[in-house]
Amino acid sequence: MRRPGRGTAGHGAEARKAPRLSNGDLEIPSPPAWMRWLPAIYVAVILVVEPITPVQWPVSFLLIALPVVAAFSHGPVTVAAITVFAVGFEATLAGTPCCAGRSVGYLWDRHYVATYIATTLVGALGTGLAAHRKRQEAHLMHASSVAEALMRTLLRPLPHEVGHVLVAALYCPAEAGTMIGGDLFDIRATQHGERAIIGDVRGKGLQAVRTVADVLGSFRQAVYDPGDLLQVANRLERRMAGEAADIPDDELFVTAALIEYDPVAHRVTIVNFGHIEPILISGGEVTTLTGTPCLPLGLGTLADEPPAAAQYRLLRGDVLLMCTDGLIEARDANGNFYPLLDRLSDRFGGRPVPDPLDVINFLNTDLPRHASKRHDDVAILAIAPHGRL
User: Fold this and answer.
1) How far apart are CA 63 and CA 60, in angstroms?
2) How far is CA 24 from CA 10, 145, 177, 345, in A?
3) Distance between CA 62 and CA 43 in Å, rounded?
């Protein structure tokens, strides 16, 4: 019998989960080492230049800028301490004959007194700038944590086993630490079989996240209702039409692929709405599953014919891979797209069929080698029958 429900985690090795939210470490990037050491380098340069310049050239006046230099990479307490050091160091250079060739009388010369005052004022400004930078970093951290919580609520972690299939998934935002995106995926075990979706919303930002929430919410409800996969698609199409009317947006659409796995017939049904064609890894071969193309969700009223479903054999040991265009459109330094089929063939061709998690882990490692910087989010979903009825 099929096991309805939302899927349960397996035991032992099957309980593993793919690194589903990659590049999501919410940490403020530390300044580079040279910037942290810049105040010390600045002082060292002054120490070198001061003894070799004429007395009438007070190089120590350059210490006025030291607090601002420190404010770029240090906190307000450190900047305040550096300000005190700068004033004391200016006084030392002003009245130390061995270092600068000046007599002690220069210590309270009006020009040097003005320098002390100016350094103190600049130090107060630098301390304020450092404090403001720290507040901005804290605000950014809070905003990033809210965004991450939102995306983790929408793209919920998937167990390694859902119904009769093993599952692994990956979501990589285009920018490290930026969790807002328009890619989506989910899989549910229902009385009709295991049903999954992967999609890519047109647009970016909060509006795209709203559409992601609508699509996933509709999918999670519709997959349990009576009817086949095409009826699920019709419900999603109606929801997209309502969303477009609410915004309003006449060009709102989602490229998506709907998948249904029948464990009894060992068959997978796919309805492709303008999305990237799924890839089948079977018997050491990597092939693309081409089917009847359909317009993206939200543009169904423009189609001359209703969407059509395609069916394929999916046996134990096969892996079905689905992704968004951020994967295949990732470019290397020479502008070449990521050769997904070639890379999968090189890695898994002619070998025992891997676990879905193996495929996801390979892509999560191999993609950054090809494209160190991406311009679009990447979502990947891999499923494989586990063969237990």
Assistant:
1) 6
2) 25, 10, 5, 29
3) 9
Output the 3-class SS for 9-66.
CCCHHHHCCCCCECCCCCCCCCCCHHHHCHHHHHHHHHHHHHHHCCCCCCHHHHHHHH
Over the stretch 112-139, which tens digit does the pLDDT of each residue have? 788 889 999 999 999 999 999 888 888 8
Whether residue 60 contacts residue 94, with contact meaning beta carbons closer than 8 Å, is answered with: yes
Tokens of 172: 């990589």
| Beta-bridge partners for 321 | 279, 382
Buried b (16+ CB within 10 A) or exposed e, 231-248: ebbebbbebbbebbeeee
Token readout for 94 is 């002003």
> What gap in Å lies between CA 171 and CA 317, rounded to an integer?
24
Task: Note if the pTM is more than 0.85.
Answer: no
What is the rounded distance in angstroms from the CA atom of residue 280 to the CA atom of residue 261? Answer: 14
Q: Where are the alpha helices (DSSP H) in the chain?
A: 33-36, 38-49, 66-71, 76-94, 97-100, 110-154, 205-222, 229-246, 325-328, 340-348, 356-370
Is the dihedral angle over the CA atoms 222, 225, 227, 229 positive or is it negative? positive
Nearest-CA neighbor of 64 among 91, 33, 87, 40?
87
343 and 326 in contact (C-beta within 8 Å)? no
Beta bridge partners of 162: 165
- Cα of first residue to Cα of last residue in the chain, in angstroms, is 7
In this structure, are residues 254 and 229 in contact, taking their beta carbons and an 8 Å threshold?
A: no
Q: How far apart are CA 281 and CA 345, in angstroms?
A: 9
Write the single-letter amino acid at 238: R
Query: CA angle at residue 60 from 56 to 65, to 5 degrees?
Result: 135
CA distance linking residue 242 with residue 214, whole number of Å: 10
Can you give the length of the chain in residues?
389
Distance from C-alpha of 329 to C-alpha of 201, rounded to nearest angstrom? 16
**CA-based angle 315:380:206, to the nearest 5?**
145
Q: How far is CA 78 from the centre of its chain?
A: 33
Percent over 90 (pLDDT), the chain? 31
pLDDT tens-place string over residues 215-259: 888 899 988 988 889 999 888 888 887 777 767 766 778 899 999
288: enclosing H helix or E strand:
strand 285-288
